[in-house]
Hints:
Elements: E1 14-15, E2 18-19, H1 27-61, H2 67-91, H3 105-128
Antiparallel strand pairs: 1-2
Helix pairs in contact: 1-2, 2-3
Amino acid sequence: xxxxxxxxxxxxxxxxxxxxxxxxxxxxxxxxxxxxxxxxxxxxxxxxxxxxxxxxxxxxxxxxxxxxxxxxxxxxxxxxxxxxxxxxxxxxxxxxxxxxxxxxxxxxxxxxxxxxxxxxxxxxxxxxx
Length: 129
């Protein structure tokens, strides 16, 4: 199949220079991949979905005075989904031994700032009711 020139080459996620589907991994590496999946796909997505759900419940069930509070929850969920996507994209290769180990401090700081700002906005809105 010839690819149009504006699309570019197809990119594959590589682990130790191999495509993910053709890689033979050990049990310890499989445990590491599963732990990363629980973090990236589990924790961030669950929290974002809970924020979306809470926002929709507030918007649908409560009076118009609480409408802005529901919108804040929805925006908070969208922010967490964005952080999750960017963190996963920046994670890179799990098993590349040439790269030094980096903690997730930057992403934790961004998540903390977004959460703190959300709670301060919610607190100020509730105090104005």
